[in-house]
Specification:
This protein has 200 residues and is of the alpha/beta class. Helix content is 40%, strand content 22%. The strands form two sheets. Strands 3-2-1-4-5-6 form a six-stranded parallel beta sheet, with helices on both faces. Strands 7-8 form a two-stranded parallel sheet.
Length: 200
């Protein structure tokens, strides 16, 4: 549930929150957080672009109703701009800080980036940030208050019960497979959906 709570927080409660009609780009969209974020953005009435680097992930993104684009495509930026349309991308849920310079290029006027992971040292074109009047925000799961958690969990529980949110499970591990589960989780860009550890 932690990933889902975190996605919910970042899409609903980050500054410049996503609204109906926005074009939302989700980097790392084939993982547990990304796939769930697609469902939230779809429910808000957004056009959603999901980015991944392997065919299994791109297929899952399409199944969730988003436009799937590979970050390995040499025409990646061009394809994102075509998919977004003349207004450009309004909001990017960013899992890797090294993508922020490219995010600045992709975003339209008043666009927002919400960075949720992998901090690093990158050079950003601040002339473009000023010209487009962009917002770049970092956030962490630990900043969720108990009250925010309670409200979001209640909403998510209801959505799960109604079937409007359907998490994709890639693999279930037994307790004796915990080392393999950890290795699979930490392997770069290798998972598509959620990895579950069964403690029963």
């Amino acid at each position: 549930m932690g990933d889902e709570i975190f996605s919910n927080k970042n899409l609903f409660h980050a500054s410049g929150a996503v609204k109906f009609g926005d074009t939302v780009l989700i980097n790392g969209a084939s993982g547990g957080v990304g796939l769930f974020a697609i469902e939230i953005a779809n429910a808000l009435g957004c056009k959603v672009i999901g980015v991944a680097g392997h065919e299994t992930g791109l297929s899952l993104i399409s199944q969730k109703g988003a436009i799937a684009i590979s970050y390995k495509d040499p025409d990646f930026v061009k394809k994102v701009k075509v998919a977004a349309g003349p207004k450009g991308v309004d909001f990017i849920l960013e899992t890797t800080a090294k993508n922020v310079p490219k995010d600045v290029e992709i975003l339209g006027k008043f666009g927002r980036v919400c960075l949720i992971g992998a901090p690093s040292h990158e050079t950003v074109d601040f002339d473009m940030v000023l010209m487009k009047e962009l917002t770049i925000k970092g956030t962490q799961a630990t900043s969720v208050t108990p009250e925010q958690y309670r409200i979001m969990k209640a909403g998510l529980d209801k959505a799960l019960e109604e079937g409007s949110i359907n998490p994709i499970v890639e693999k279930v591990y037994t307790i004796d497979q915990i080392a393999q589960a950890h290795n699979d989780l930490m392997a770069p860009r290798s998972t598509a959906g959620k990895l579950i550890l069964d403690l029963s």
